[in-house]
Structures are given as structure tokens and as C-alpha cells.
Amino acid sequence: MGTGIELQLVEFIRQGAMEMAALTGRKYFETLALFLTQVTNADVVLIGEITVEGKQARTVTVINDGEIADNFEFSLFESPFAHLLDGSMHIFPNDLQSLFPDDYLIADLSLDAFAGIPIFSSQGNIIGFLVAMHRHSIENSDMTDHALHFFASRVSAELEQKLVFDELKEHESFLQGIINLTEDVLFITDLFGTIKIFSPSAVKILGWLPQELNNQSFYNFLSDDTRQLAIQEFEKCISSGLPKQRIKLMIKNKSGTIHMVEWFATPTTINNEINGCISIFRKLLTEP
């Protein structure tokens, strides 16, 4: 890559990387993909994530004819993408439809050439691809090779961060579904017992408004008779990291009614460190 034109292109890539340095997430992926269409003269550039190992993938960003296109899922079976699963970059400079006659994506987009590089996680697992595809033969494979390698590591960091964020959102959605369905009073608290999340049933059963529950200590909603016991057992739960079950407590409705409950609690963790507790108050019975 010693000619003046090639060196100018390399400098162009580096300049583009500097301009994208402050971007993250979707904006970064789209800007990078658009930039790669200019550098590689590709008709289609996509960044994809693997959804089913060795079988399925989903695009994160697609540029088709210089325009941002809708994302889609696709099969890796009998496709050039499957070759990237060996951990190496692959370039098919021409005759792509002849090489992969069963790949509907190649046929639908009328593609003739493919250049792609796998994207690795920080643990060394293949999590996606960075790919440039053409409706004509690839004339400068060295430049395409250089461009894809240059951006692969940054795409890796952004894609891994996206996958972690997506997983967190999925877990939060699942947890929120459980919270919404429970008929018991459910509080999620921090290490000090301050309520951060509560079930709709807590509002219905206890009669307190959401703003009266949020960021309050759950101790405040217990009767004087059992508050100290709750504090002691909560601290044991947090310090031991072990669940607490079947502790009888008395909880107060806003109207002043006292209810007897069974308290179940389990610590929550982030990165293997305890950061709070999930508490369930079950079998509410009016105090005799």
C-alpha cells in the first residue's frame, strides 16, 4: 500500500475515525457504515449481530445504495457470512451468486462481491460481522481489507456494549412483567432498605400513593411492633447474601389498618456484588 493514492485513502480512513470518535451507539454504527460505502465503493454495507450461534443473524445497521435501510434478520446457511465464523476475514471478489446460489439475500440485492470480517467480544467470541458488498467485482481488495480491519475493533466495543444493553432491557422487561402480575406487595430496595421499585399491587393493597412509596424506607410502612425485627433480618439478608423466608411482620395500610404478612426476601447483585434486596409480603390477613 505504498502509492500516493493508497496513502491518501489510508489517511482518509484515519480522518474519518477521528470524526467518529465521539459517536456511540446507533449514530456511530450508521455513520461508520455510510463512511465505509465511500471508502470501499460498496453498494451495501452492513453491521450484523449473531442471534442464533451458527444459524441466524440480525442487522444492526444497513446501508443500501447510500441510504439507511430497514434492519432485518437472515439465515447464515449457505451464505458467505457463514465463512466468517472461522474467525477470519473473507473476500469473494466476484461471481458471488454462483458461489452461493441458495443465499436469497445475495439474490435479492443482486450482489456480485463480498468482503467481511468477524466481530469479536472482549472474551474472544464471535458476536457479529462488518461487511461490504458490491454489485460489481471488487477492484481494490487491499483497500477494503484495510478499511474493515481498521474499524473492526471499535465496532467490537460498540456492538458488545449494545448487546449488554439489550440484555439488560430484556431482563428489566421480564422483571417488570413479573412485578406487574404479582398479587403480593413487592418492594425492590437498595442496601439501606430504600424502595426503588414497587408492584402496582403495593399501591392497591396498602393504599399509599406511588410518590408516597417511592424512595421511602420500607421500614416506614411496618408497625412499631415488628419494625426492629425487620431491620435486623434485612441487615442479615444483605450481609449474608442469603435469602430470608417466612418472617412474620405487621405492615400498615394508609387507613391505619394493620396486616399480618409473611416476609420473603432475597439479595440482588450487580457484577457479583450485593446492591439491594427484593422483598415480598405475602398472605395479607387482617390482624385479629
Short description:
40% of the residues lie in helices and 31% in strands. It has 288 residues and is α+β, with helices and mostly antiparallel strands.
What does this protein look like?
With 288 residues, this protein is α+β, with helices and mostly antiparallel strands. The protein folds into 2 domains: 4-167, 2-Layer Sandwich (Beta-Lactamase), CATH 3.30.450; 175-286, PAS domain (Beta-Lactamase, 2-Layer Sandwich). The protein is 40% helix and 31% strand. It has helices at 4-19, 25-40, 80-83, 96-99, 104-108, 141-181, 200-206, 210-213, 224-240; strands at 44-52, 56-64, 67-69, 73-75, 90-92, 113-120, 126-134, 185-190, 195-198, 244-252, 258-270, 273-286. The strands form 2 sheets. Strands 1, 2, 3, 4, 5, 6 and 7 form a 7-stranded antiparallel beta sheet that branches. A hairpin with a 4-residue loop joins strand 8 (185-190) and strand 9 (195-198). Helix 1 runs parallel beside helix 6 (141-181) and helix 2 (25-40) runs antiparallel to helix 6 (141-181).
